[in-house]
């Protein structure tokens, strides 16, 4: 299992008050994302656990693009990967941010 860690400047902070959100499933070609409110509002940290080695540069590009485009400041994102494609990673990250920003019922 490979562990990757990123700490990026985030242009915009996530809104809402939910403390955490969990989306996705750990399965072949999919992944699970746990979003938690942690750290400074201008930073986003991401920790990835993946069984697939050799895609560090791709992970870095996908995460940097996501943090630049979405309101991810103040979040820590934990990813348990099951060999997901980049478009699936981006989809799950967007779902996690959307859920954590949603109003609580």
UniProtKB/TrEMBL annotation:
Subcellular location, record wording: Cytoplasm
Pfam families cross-referenced by the UniProt entry: ACP
Keywords in alphabetical order: Cytoplasm, Phosphoprotein
Primary location class: cytoplasm
Any GO CC annotation of this UniProt entry: cytoplasm
O-(phosphoribosyl dephospho-coenzyme A)serine modified-residue sites: 28
Keyword Phosphoprotein included in the entry's annotation: yes
Free-text description of this protein's post-translational modifications in UniProt: Covalently binds the prosthetic group of malonate decarboxylase.
HAMAP family the record matches: Malonate_deCO2ase_dsu
Protein name as it appears in the record: Malonate decarboxylase acyl carrier protein
Source organism of the structure: Rhizorhabdus wittichii (strain DSM 6014 / CCUG 31198 / JCM 15750 / NBRC 105917 / EY 4224 / RW1)
Taxonomy of the source species: Bacteria, Pseudomonadati, Pseudomonadota, Alphaproteobacteria, Sphingomonadales
